Amino acid sequence: MNRRHPVAEGRHDPDSPRAETKAQRLDRNLTELVSELRVALPGVQVLLAFLLVVPFNQRFTQTTQFERIVYFVTLLLTAATCVLLIAPSVHHRVQFRRQEKEEIVLLGNRVAVVGLAMLALAVTGAVLFVTDFLIGGVAAVVTALALVLLFAVVWYVLPLRGRSGSGERAVRRS
Fold it and tell me: How many whole angstroms from its chain centre is CA 13?
């Protein structure tokens, strides 16, 4: 049987700036999402492992009430980050072969963006916890605020800066 490629036949997705079908675009988007999450997840796992071990260290008894609160909030943020960044894989498994790839990609993107924001907060919390324990006071707060600003600018402001006019439409379609 002689099957011609849909793109070769001109049946590409009109919402895509690339010469690909909607199914091909969704496959590519899902692959890209999963690849990006593979980069973030090992860091989250290491952070979670670190946080799970910290209270069993003998020096943990020397932490202040503030440090314990920061530690606990950071632990919860890291656990929530794990849930959110692993969610797209679970969604894909649960919805496998149900022809719902577009929903998986859209929801996966949303939870990944929220998960990465929580990761930024979790890393900041870990740095605040350690810095307050080592140095304390104003230096810890300034360090944490500088780190939040760095995450905000590098992870969100820079990529969103280019999303105006036709550039935004192209990003949404890719």
Answer: 27
